Amino acid sequence: MKDKNTIIGIVLLAALFFVFFWYTNKEQSNYLAHQQHIQDSLHRDSLAKITPQQKAAARIDSLHNDSLSKLNTAGQFSGNVNLPEKLVTVENELIKVVFSSKGGMIKQVELKKYNSQFGGKVILGESNNDGIGYNINTSSNRAASTTQLNFTPSQPVKNADGSQTVQFTLQDSTHSGIVHQFIIKPNSYLIDWNIQLNNASALITNSALNFHFLQEPMQVEKSVDYERRMSDVCFSEGNDFDYISSHTDHTFEKPVQWLSAVQQFFNVTLIAKNNFNSGKVLWTRKTDSSRSIGVVDATLQMQVPASASVNIPMQLFYGPNDYKVLQTAAPDMDKIINLGRDMYSFVRPINKFIVMPVFNFFAGFISVYGWVIALLTIFIRLITSPLVYKSYKSGARMKLLRPELDSLRKKFGTDQQGFAMEQMKLFREAGVNPLGGCLPLLLQIPIFFALYSFFNSNISLRGQPFLWSNDLSTNDVLVQFHSKIFIIGDHISLFALLAVGTSFLISLYNMNMTPSDPNNPALKYMPYIYPIFMILIFNSLPSALTWYYTVSNLITLGIQFTIQNYILDHEKILAKMDERRKTPKVKPKSKWQEQYEKMIETQKKMQQLKQQQNPKNKK
């Protein structure tokens, strides 16, 4: 009763802490909102005091100063500074690319096959902060980024192979300048970007070109918090794949083949066919309430030939994190898809050679991905069944031993060493492995991590409905809260509840089969506490993963019930136990059993020795 009260007290205390943190968080949010409202009101009041004439004069001064600054920076290319921005649109079957004369670069790319959670198609590069450029000398002692200069666009030209070419030219009176040539191929997310520098020795210093890659991916999925967690920066350095996620920066010490700003299901990648020589990248993951995922800010240096005319072959990728697509984009770009990294890299072969091929096989003739996941679950359980069958049988036999174990506890009382020795003997006679129940759990760990990576990165699940879930790539919503609740979030997932509920049933079933330990009564309350922690983890996971877990648990319950009630012959097992008792040592002990019995015997002797040395402890 004392242990029961302790457990109840712990649960109540945890509940009080939860309510306290939720209330404190809510009050703090209200306070910050009130302070922001005050600041906004003061700002509006200060703006209201400015007369229209003052506003107009300030605007004219600002435009004038900005124009002078641009003219000074542009140097020999100042004739193009005040030209209006021109947009050129080129598209193929997969993408719609909008180019801008400002910088002679891509302004944004629409992905025709993918819808955004905010309506319309997914657009990459939509932030005003996005840009890719490099510095050039515009005159003596003056330099500017190409992103600040206006290029002259040409009309798109369709080539014989079905590709389309568009060019942007920046040229001064001496014909020194730059040509950006872009080639968009049919059915491809890759865009060839060829840079031609005329009079390169005057445009760049020491044959070094300094690129600036700035990207601010924007939210396109349901949960910005979850999309931020799944986003990172990937790159190939020294022909080896690497990435940064938790860290905020990385300095390149080897040649860089490509650099990618990666969202959960999409990426923007800069590819250098002749490699970057060095550089640095900064990764800032946003934590505010905006749609911004984060900011990727990279500087990359490239050595070019010291000649009058220089051609630099580059490529740009704006597209999905699709395994087959990325395999043909650039070496190791398929590793952008997180099928297992770092300490979980051991699950990548499981995903690559088992989970992915089987999933794609079922998806080839089944259009509903929820049933594809169910079949994948059945397949996984079938190939692991030989490994866990004996464990399930051993666990089912434990239930038969409960009466005899209860008798042994009464016989030995507080003599735990004696009871342990007899318990091991009983297990051996019954053919029960006390650690056998751990094997299914151990097998679940790598499989769970493999599928966690697979379902989080599998773009084919994106937007796929199943039962009450609108999108298997994200969590479903049973109850939506108006604000975030501490730890839980802003919703309750029904698939998560089913996964936790079926896990709870398995725990109850196993507890009913496993003999209870009166010396540790707190264990019987664990099946009731464990689901509380599980729901906190599962609530934000993709529906695909929680659906898999639910199906897997139902299969486990079915296997255990079938073995217990239809496969095991209880009378036969009890008869074998009696036969083994009559003919001892029919089966030799394992080394583990021998060591365990020696340890128990040693502990028993030590306890007897202590009792002899201290007579007061004798009963």
Short description:
This protein is of the alpha+beta class and 619 residues long. It has helices at residues 2-48, 52-74, 200-203, 224-229, 323-327, 348-363, 369-400, 402-412, 416-430, 438-457, 494-513, 526-538, 543-567, 570-582, 591-613; strands at residues 87-91, 95-100, 105-115, 121-124, 131-139, 142-145, 152-153, 157-158, 164-171, 177-184, 190-198, 208-215, 232-237, 240-244, 249-252, 256-262, 266-276, 278-285, 294-303, 309-320, 479-485, 489-492.
Secondary structure category: alpha+beta
Annotation, overall tally of beta strands: 22
Q: Hey, roughly how much beta strand do the residues contain? A: 15-25%
CATH topology of the largest domain: Beta-galactosidase, Chain A, domain 5
Radius of gyration, rounded?
A: 34 Å
Any idea of the CATH class of the largest domain? Mainly Beta
Average pLDDT across residues? 80
Shape: elongated
Number of spatially distinct domains:
4
CATH architecture of the largest domain: Distorted Sandwich
Distance between the termini: 25 Å
